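In the previous lecture we treated proteins in isolation. Real proteins rarely work alone, and many bind small molecules. This record shows how such a complex is specified: first the sequence, then the SMILES for pyridoxal-5'-phosphate.
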Amino acid sequence: MKKHNFSAGPAILPASVIQEAAQGILDFNGSGLSILEVSHRGAAFMAVMDEAIELVKELLDLPADYEVMFLSGGASTQFFMAPMNLIDESDTACYVDTGTWASKAIKEAKAFGKIEVLASSKADNYTHIPQGFDVPSYAKYLHLTSNNTIYGTQYHWWPDTQVPIVCDMSSDIFSRPVDISRFGLIYAGAQKNMGAAGVTLVVVKKDLLGTVHRHLPAMLDYRLHIENGSMYNTPPVYAVYIAMLTMRWIKANGGMRQMEQLNQRKAQLLYDEIDANPCFIGTTRKEDRSLMNVTFLAAKPEWEQPFLDACKAAGCVDLKGHRSVGGFRASIYNAMPLEGVQALVDVMREFAKREQ
Ligand SMILES: *Cc1c(COP(=O)(O)O)cnc(C)c1O
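The predicted 3D structure, ligand included, written as tokens:
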């Protein structure tokens, strides 16, 4: 039976991307070689890297003064690499604490400058996005986490500030149009919405770099990666290839507007069912609900396992919620078709009929 994969990450990829990626292992572009065994400096892979960088520019509609990098180390490396490159010890950077990943970013940044946490939703277990905070003009940047993968909240607005925004977009990159000119730097681990694990996308406005005085090890200096076209050392070749294929798929399927429309329809279908179905309860404030990670609980705790079993029987997998929220989490990234969400909603309806 075809499985509907609701995993939070590594997560669902388009079936056609998996096919092409598999083919690339056997015979990369008709070269008679596997992509796993060709030089990253050869023409064939250089074309992949070039296309990947071009696709990021195109999909995000990047202004000319932004640079694109494909790096290793996951989004977790960006938690310290961004402050290391952007602030000196005497500088202030501001953060908003909206969940596990945001608080890890805060913790890491503290080693490199003065960190002010402007707002936090920790007191209510991160079930909303804080509003009404002021960003001091002396801040060198404001750090946000656009989508909180674990708690199921997402920014549907951006703070009104002249301070450059640094944003962890790991779990909603390429899911909707964003005006990049409002951001100084964005980063995203690929394994949620843009490919397989092993590569991280970083986009930065050039003029933010080169202002810090500390020594930066080569591998942690954005400028060196930019100068070398993300080829300072051997890049994660296969992960870059899969990210490129996924971006091609996004483009061929209508780009950001089309992704957003479909993501809104999927999320609406599922949230409407959660709100209407007496067996389930949404966990987050409605206006901050994530279009990517839908978190909900069983109205009676003893329904939790039977519901997971019913999901599994219908081919809907990886729906168990993160331990810090409990209940269920349905991750419905770009590659999840509407039919997958419909299959889950059908299980929820059947479950209610049976239990009520
Ligand atoms: C998954 C995730 C991370 C961690 O990513 P790694 O690539 O595992 O380091 C960071 N931030 C967000 C928002 C995530 O969803």
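Summary for your notes: The radius of gyration is 21 Å. The CA atoms of residues 98 and 121 lie 6 Å apart.
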